[in-house]
Amino acid sequence: MIEVRCGDCGRLLARASFSRIEIKCPRCKTLNSLRAIEPPTQAPASANVEVNHGQANTSMDGR
Fold first, then answer.
1. Pairing of strands 20-24, 31-35
2. Where is there biased composition of kind Polar residues (predicted)?
3. pLDDT for 5-63, tens place per residue?
4. Which candidate, 30, 32, 36, places its Cα nearest to that of 16?
5. Where are the chain's structural domains?
6. Residue 31 contacts residue 13 (beta carbons within 8 Å)
């Protein structure tokens, strides 16, 4: 998680993990729009799927 601070007055607004966030500072009323610089640390669920390219699954043969 990272600290999200107001770009105008520096007040701590949140501690968060996000890809995009808009948050209004309650102190100075500045609208802060931020987006993540780095991609999310977790791979998408589809990245964990094993793909079998043209190879026969011999464990099920003969059943």
1. antiparallel
2. 54-63
3. 999 999 999 998 888 999 999 999 999 999 987 655 665 555 554 545 555 555 555 65
4. 36
5. 1-38
6. no
What is each CA distance from 25 to 1, 10, 19, 48, in whole angstroms? 19, 9, 19, 40
**Do the beta carbons of residue 13 and residue 5 sit within 8 Å?**
yes
Give the chain's length.
63
Q: How far is CA 4 from the centre of its chain?
A: 15
Beta strands in 1-63 (DSSP E): 2-5, 12-16, 20-24, 31-35
Contact 36, 19 (CB under 8 A): yes
pLDDT the model gives residue 63: 57
Q: What is the largest distance, in Å, between two alpha-carbon atoms of the chain? A: 73
